[in-house]
Every structure is written in structure tokens, then in C-alpha cells.
């Protein structure tokens, strides 16, 4: 087997991992989102000591699907870019990955996609790169580290991006939004799996 063929096999394997992690997330195993981060890192993250799979495939010029425009300028909190507020028939609200339910879809170059600001906490921008690497390198994807980035740690805190006001038994209560970091990672998984150029590369 030649080297190029082997790397294509690795790409198909990684996308298989990604698909199964997304399926597991969707049936309730939301912590599977951390594995989504690990796959994204393997595919894209390039360093002096580590070569990304897309670099091995000479495919760093491909485009990937983005489902968010990014935050408006100076918006102190921006979280709906990778998630969606969902209100069920029982009036219960939740914050979920938007998957294909959004109104914005753009194919953008890999470097721009990786560095695009997709969320913001207290005016601190969060890119796909920063979310993925914090999850994969420090939050259990490939390594565990006590020193999470401040922005990622803030995103992972219950209520970091707000809360829902819910009525129950004639009383109102604020229910914090939870797992915003995992929601972001699941949406990143969706974007990767629905990027035509990446799928075509895997078929090559």
C-alpha cells in the first residue's frame, strides 16, 4: 500500500470515528463531543512537531462548511453561532447544536474556518481552533490538564452564556444553560461531516 493510499484510509477511519461520536452525542452521550475535538485536531492541527492528516494529504487548501457568520462587533456575549435555542412543545427550553437547522451556510478556506470566531464570552473571542484544542489537549480528548484556557473554562461553566426563565407550578426560576462547549464541538462535527470537499477527499 502506498503512502497516499494509507493516508486516505486514515482519513476515512477518522471520519468514521467522527460520525459515530456525533451519533452517540445525539442519543444522549454528550461528553462524546470531546472525541469530536480529538478527530478535528488530528485532521487539521499543524505544529512543528506534529503533522496534520490534511497536510499529509496535501489538502490544506480545501474548504470546509461554516454554519455561522461569527459575532457582531463588540458583542460581549455571542453564543448562538454554533448553537440554537430550542423551545419544546412543553415550553421547556434547551440550547442545542443547530446542525442543519440554521439559515447560514458558507464554504470557506480551511485556515479561515479554523480561525473564525464562532463564540465570545465577555468579549473574549473563541475560535474553532481554540475550542477544539482546549478540549483535545486539556479536557480529556488526548490529554488531561489542570490548566484549561480561561475562555474555554468559562464556556464550560453552567450558565456561562446565560439562563432560561421557566415557569413551573406558578413560580418562575432561572435554569442555567449547560454544556455550551459540548454543543459547540457537536456543531463542529456536523460541519466537518457535511463539508463536500472533505467527503470527496475521503473518497479519493
Structure description:
With 204 residues, this protein is an alpha+beta fold. Helix content is 42%, strand content 19%. The protein has one domain. The chain has eight helices and eight strands. The chain has a two-stranded antiparallel ribbon with strand order 1-4. It has a two-stranded antiparallel sheet with strand order 2-3. A two-stranded antiparallel ribbon has the order 5-6. Helix 1 packs antiparallel against helix 2, helix 2 crosses helix 5 and helix 2 packs across helix 7. The chain starts with a helix and ends with a helix. The relative contact order is 0.20. About 3% of the residues have low confidence.
Keywords:
two-stranded antiparallel sheet; 19% strand; elongated
Amino acid at each position: 500500500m502506498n503512502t497516499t493510499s494509507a493516508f486516505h484510509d486514515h482519513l476515512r477511519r477518522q471520519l468514521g470515528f467522527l460520525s459515530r461520536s456525533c451519533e452517540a452525542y445525539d442519543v444522549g452521550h454528550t461528553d462524546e463531543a470531546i472525541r469530536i475535538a480529538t478527530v478535528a485536531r488530528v485532521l487539521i492541527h499543524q505544529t512543528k512537531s506534529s503533522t496534520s492528516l490534511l497536510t499529509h494529504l496535501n489538502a490544506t487548501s480545501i474548504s470546509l462548511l461554516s454554519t455561522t457568520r461569527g459575532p457582531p462587533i463588540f458583542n460581549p456575549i455571542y453564543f448562538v453561532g454554533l448553537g440554537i435555542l430550542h423551545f419544546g412543545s412543553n415550553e421547556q427550553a434547551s440550547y442545542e447544536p443547530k446542525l442543519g437547522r440554521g439559515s447560514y451556510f458558507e464554504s470557506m478556506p480551511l485556515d479561515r474556518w479554523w480561525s473564525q470566531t464562532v463564540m465570545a464570552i465577555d468579549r473574549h473571542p473563541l475560535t474553532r481552533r481554540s475550542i477544539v484544542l482546549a478540549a483535545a489537549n486539556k479536557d480529556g480528548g488526548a490529554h488531561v490538564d489542570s490548566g484549561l484556557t480561561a475562555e474555554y473554562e468559562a464556556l464550560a461553566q453552567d450558565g456561562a452564556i446565560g439562563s432560561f426563565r421557566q415557569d413551573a407550578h406558578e413560580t418562575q426560576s432561572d435554569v442555567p444553560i449547560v454544556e455550551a462547549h459540548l454543543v459547540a464541538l457537536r456543531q463542529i462535527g456536523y460541519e466537518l461531516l457535511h463539508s463536500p470537499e472533505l467527503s470527496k477527499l475521503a473518497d479519493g
